[in-house]
Amino acid sequence: MKNVNDQGWGTMSKSAWKRAGVVLTAAAVVTGLAGCQDDGGGGGKKKAAAPAPAAPRTQTLGEATKVIRAAYTKTAGAKSAKVRMSMSVTGLGAESGTAEMTGVQGWNPAVMDITMKGSLFTAGDPEAPEQTRMIVLGDVTYLDMGTEKAAERDGKRWMKLDMKAAAEASDDPTAKHRMTGGLGNMNQDPAQQLALLLDSPDLKHVGAEKINGMETQHYKGTLSFEQMLKANKTSEVLPEKEYDALIAAVKLAGLKGYDTEVWVDEDGYPARMDVDMNMGIGSMELRADYSDYGAATTVKAPPAEDTFDLLGMLEELEGLEGLEGLEGLEEPTEG
């Protein structure tokens, strides 16, 4: 019987699997500090008898809703942007840490090509590269596992995971939700995040702020987990039994809702988005800064010869383990 490790698959360390899981969750799966107000200075002589500046005006709910709706329309039409993300997970012991992600992304269709680094990906794994790259094309995610891991798999450094196929193969409703257009995807798509903010019962305008050198208007709102699922039509995707199990699992984890903030620039695009999730035992903060909306985005899959399929690998291992379980059984004797 050929040993699993002979194929190189079984040599992946526990920490490497953890790193892959964290990265894929980040794919599947954006609290705000007040920006500095622009003082409008600029040198030169002051004008005599200059009138006092008007006090900043807070927009009404109707005005705020109009701005967010217009930003959604513009963002959905742009279909792409450059993105810089930061993520912080606290209160979860060894699973806590920080991460930074930079690159490009597109939506409708969903594509992403980003480079990631941080303790969330490297903690506990001395073999982990300083940074790693992730490519997303629709339902398929590719993760660069690094040179050393590639040596264990005949040079195949890219791990492929078809999220839709993985969801169909999973018996876990929580995992299935994450992998079928769940919260992670919504947080990564600025247009969808704006649409969700419109459903917030407490959407409000915070005020004018300067973000990354740009004048912006700051808005915030909160969504319950049930509202988030409804907006994402999760109840239509999952069978009733699995949907109820998902709700129960989330309540058990202590997740009550999402605090969402967005800063809309003078061109009507979101310059920054924050999502803060408190899960009772821990929390996650995700910030995304966007720029260059509408820029051409070309994202390609890695060469097939450099890629191995994670689901196929797991099915192969499961089959080998099943065969190994037959060892030791005696051959039937003739009566």
UniProtKB/TrEMBL annotation:
Entry-linked InterPro entries: LolA/LolB/LppX
Region described as Disordered: 38-58
Annotated keywords: Lipoprotein
Protein name (record): Lipoprotein
Protein source organism: Streptomyces cinereoruber
